[in-house]
Design a protein that fits this description.
Low-confidence stretches: none
Largest sheet: none
CATH superfamily: Ammonium transporter AmtB like domains
Strand content: under 5%
Shape: globular
Helix content: 55-70%
Number of strands: 0
Mean pLDDT: 94
Radius of gyration: 21 Å
Number of domains: 1
Structural class: mainly alpha
CATH class: Mainly Alpha
Order of helices and strands: HHHHHHHHHHHHHHH
CATH architecture: Orthogonal Bundle
Number of helices: 15
CATH topology: Ammonium transporter fold
Length: 415
């Protein structure tokens, strides 16, 4: 390969990686809008604050230690070789040329792409604990999840650890990102409890409508768009015919799964409730996206639509089940990212990915869930003991915007 061609391919793949990272970063806006639309007006400012703060915390903690843990090497496959430090390193021009194309993007672009993934995992937690958790308790947890809990299980798969050696397949993160975030949320919600008035003593579920469904729908479309970077960027390169075709297939399959999930959830809600429930449709689209994330390439578009549709149906029943067992999740994050994340990982066994085995997928699911749940629960318990995790009953009734932020998102309507 000529030096000129190597340089062009390196520049193109680096640029592609960065653009995909920017699309995933834009998902932070999607989560922010989605969650702000699905909570009550009196809790909107606080959830906006959580989302912009968690993104910033994720960036700092992943730079300080998370990236080193995840990609600094692991001789035994279980513990990282490096725990702290900035290990971002770009290859020199001489190294790139000498590699004859094996080094095809810059180290800094890899860090940027990975750091926006960890922010996505933390955003999942935000919606599940909305409207009753103390802001600073949440942000303290974000420090630990993004700096330690997420990178450890990420290293076990994407950093060449023991899960990767066991054959666990997770192309873009149905498990590493979505199941991890949802599991951390489950641990927090179990300790936190439900919102006041959500469940009655006789088992009745009281719906608590969101304040701004147009905002939630916009958030869904932003996430849908960002997912093209999430899955497409995970192909890592685009600079030859084979890779370009693969990226195009990933985009098509990602879009098809989202569409299938939305339609299936919309039909399911009509059959179950006699109404076309917008919130179920929104979560159906996201469920479709989570379903395809573990393997967005080894399908035809028709099968990708079906995989997403199954995810859309699963999420409807999962949301209902969570309410039945009194797990209060205002945005359905645990169902979308956790329950459907498991489906996405198992679905890989049905794809054309010959490396996937049921045992390998189950191993990954169990390890990610167990690690994240236990460590997250320990952290939540410590935070609860030291500063508490839940606002007072009166603060919840008044709205946590007032107590946590001192600002109302809709001052004309919130008294």
């Amino acid at each position: 390969m000529s030096p000129e061609l190597i340089e062009v391919k390196y520049a193109l793949d680096t640029f592609y990686f960065l653009i995909c990272g920017a699309l995933v970063m834009w998902m932070a806006a999607g989560f922010t809008m989605l969650e702000a639309g699905l909570v009550r007006a009196k809790s909107t400012t606080e959830i906006l604050t959580k989302n912009i703060a968690l993104y910033s915390i994720s960036c700092v903690m992943y730079l300080v230690m998370g990236y080193a843990i995840m990609y600094g090497g692991s001789a035994g496959g279980y513990l990282p070789d490096v725990w702290f430090g900035n290990i971002i390193s770009n290859s020199t021009a001489e190294e790139v040329l000498a590699s004859n194309g094996d080094i095809y993007y810059s180290g800094a672009s890899d860090f940027f792409f990975q750091v926006v993934f960890v922010a996505t995992a933390m955003s999942i937690v935000s919606g599940a604990v909305a409207e009753r958790m103390k802001l600073w308790s949440f942000l303290l947890f974000a420090v630990v999840l993004t700096g330690f809990i997420y990178p450890m299980q990420g290293m076990w798969k994407w950093g060449g650890g023991f899960l990767d050696a066991a054959g666990f397949q997770d192309f873009a993160g149905s498990g590493v990102v979505h199941l991890c975030g949802a599991t951390a949320a489950i641990a927090g919600v179990m300790l936190l409890g439900a919102r006041k008035g959500k469940y009655t003593s006789d088992g009745k579920v009281n719906a608590i409508p969101g304040s701004n469904l147009p905002l939630a729908a916009i958030g869904m479309f932003i996430l849908w768009m960002g997912w093209f970077g999430f899955n497409g960027g995970s192909e890592l390169k685009v600079s030859d015919i084979g890779e370009a075709n693969a990226v195009a297939d990933i985009f098509v399959n990602t879009n098809a799964a989202a569409a299938g999930g939305l339609i299936a959830a919309l039909i399911a809600s009509q059959l179950l409730f006699g109404k076309a429930d917008l919130t179920m449709a929104i979560n159906g689209a996201l469920a479709g996206l989570v379903s395809i994330t573990a393997e967005p390439l080894a399908w035809t578009a028709g099968y990708a639509t079906l995989i997403g549709a199954i995810g859309g149906i699963i999420v409807v029943f999962s949301v209902l089940f969570m309410d039945k067992i009194k797990i209060d999740d205002p945005v359905g994050a645990i169902s979308v990212h956790g329950v459907v994340g498991i489906w996405g990982l198992l679905a890989v066994c049905l794809s054309a990915n010959d490396s996937a085995t049921l045992m390998g997928q189950l191993t990954g699911i169990v390890v990610i869930f167990a690690w994240t749940f236990v460590t997250s629960l320990i952290v939540w318990v410590i935070i609860k003991a030291v500063i508490g995790i839940r606002v007072t009953e009166q603060e919840e009734v008044d709205g946590i915007d007032a107590s946590e932020c001192g600002l109302a998102a809709y001052p004309e309507f919130v008294k």
